[in-house]
Design goal:
By secondary structure, this protein is an alpha/beta fold. It is built from ten helices and twelve strands. The longest helix has 21 residues.
Amino acid sequence: MSEAFSHRVLPYGGVEEFLAGALPFLREGVAAGDRVMAATCLGSEMLLRDALGAAADRVEFVQADTWYAHPSRTLADCLARAEEAAGQGRRLRLLGEPVWTCRAPLEVLEWQRAEALANVALAHTGARLLCPYSARVLPAGVIAGARKTHPETVRGAQAVPNPGYLDPWAYNAACDREPLPPPPEHADGMRIDLVDLYWLRAYVADFARQTTLPEDALQRLLVAVTEVMTNATLHGAPPIHLRLWTEPAALVCEVRDAGDWNGGTGFGLLPPPSDGPGRFGLWAVRLLCSHVQIRTGRGATVVRLRVGLPPVRVTESLTAYPA
């Protein structure tokens, strides 16, 4: 692999602009023997298959809503495929069209963060990533954000530098600049002076079982809470406060202590090296939860874990309707 890693954005206004950028990228990969993948919606897949002809059989198509289900897991999957290809003397070439519609602002922020961090996580793999963004459908802020997280923009078959591109860690710091809103008044909470993980997990489980959280998601949350509480005792300072509350579509668990964590770079935002130590720490917490927010400094560290809650199933009662 003589070419270096690249991560480019393809803003497009219609089908012609989409194909003008996507087809050369995919065809070059097929010709070079790369591992070529395309994560797009079904409509874009049909367009690409028709235009590629027989070469489409050399492209691995996956549905975008499946590929882009969780920022940290997607980053881990992409890195695993890139390292596997590199180990075979090949290159991962991914055409990935992120799913932006119907996402809450926090979700959009985390996906934009993942786009920035891909430049760090995959830099050593030689992978080539091209991310189409529909300029007709997406908000202007999403397009502007893409120019900050992708070093280059594709115009047809050409790539030009993005003058607004930010260093990934500077971008990440900007994502965490806003302070977190205070917990709601109805939040359930307790002060912890002596950590007993058994009773802590029982407390969280009792609260969670009053919600619609499935049992498998609860077990993941308990593992995440254990890791965060362990970090609070090792790197933080007393007192430690645990708070729990629900939002319309999420269960939120907050751990707050009076210390300033020294999290190094990123607080588990990147997958640990495959040949490193076995403990995954905050990276594992990010994989286990829907969203993780961390704020530290000025004598306090706050970690908020969010797990999605399935909607309440409403069943019709036959007695509600008179015969």
